[in-house]
Amino acid sequence: MKKNDFALLLILIPGLGSAQVAIECKGTLYVHPTDNIREMIWSDPPMHRDCNAYSPSDGQSNSNNISEAYLKSGKTHFGFYICDTSTAFGFDDWYLPSKNELNAIYENRDAIGGFTTNFYWSSTESSETDAWRQNFYDGKKDAAHKFEKGEIRCVRRD
């Protein structure tokens, strides 16, 4: 087992010729096998708002709160929206991972594969203007302005 009792699973998707990677921790976290989009902002400066997305471990709840706050504005070019509207592998419950879920992905990045060495966004806010991200080169985590660009890798749970 990896740190924090995370276990990596490889789940083959019949008929799709690919695999979906999953991490076990209080349920199964399925990780999209490729980045969903590169160099995406969390939000743009005029749209900064507190979305009540502060959970370090519940990315689904964070993403729901972000969606509720931003979709009312008609804006659809943010990282959470890419995950929120994904129907990859026949599932429509993809979301932007929380900072703890993102760290579990980082700890298993070599087994999962396909990552850049750039920063990846989490759904966890640190303030109205900043959100947590993690560098996949060295694991460094920091709170960055939401208008900075980062990579997006969507996840889902059973």
Briefly summarize what is shown:
This protein is α+β, with helices and mostly antiparallel strands and 158 residues long. It has helices at residues 59-71, 79-84, 99-107, 109-112, and strands at residues 7-13, 18-24, 28-31, 37-41, 119-125, 130-135, 141-145, 149-152, 155-157. The longest helix has 13 residues, at 59-71.
Structure description:
The chain is an alpha+beta fold and 158 residues long. The protein has one domain (3-157). It has four helices and nine strands. The strands form three sheets. It has a four-stranded antiparallel beta sheet with strand order 1-2-3-9, covered by helices on one side. 36% of the residues are buried. Mean pLDDT is 81; it is low at 1-8 and 10-19.
Report the span from N to C terminus: 20 Å
Shape: globular
Number of helices in the DSSP assignment? 4
Q: Largest sheet, order of strands side by side?
A: 1-2-3-9
DSSP strand count: 9
Strand count, sense and barrel status of the largest sheet are: 4 strands, antiparallel
Structural class: alpha+beta
**Strand proportion:** 25-35%
What order do the SSEs take from the amino end to the carboxyl end, as H and E? EEEEHHHHEEEEE
Q: Total domains, how many?
A: 1
Rounded radius of gyration (Å) = 15 Å
Overall average pLDDT:
81
Helical content, roughly?
10-25%
What topology does this entry show?
Layout: E1 7-13, E2 18-24, E3 28-31, E4 37-41, H1 59-71, H2 79-84, H3 99-107, H4 109-112, E5 119-125, E6 130-135, E7 141-145, E8 149-152, E9 155-157
Antiparallel strand pairs: 1-2, 2-3, 3-9, 4-8, 5-6, 6-7
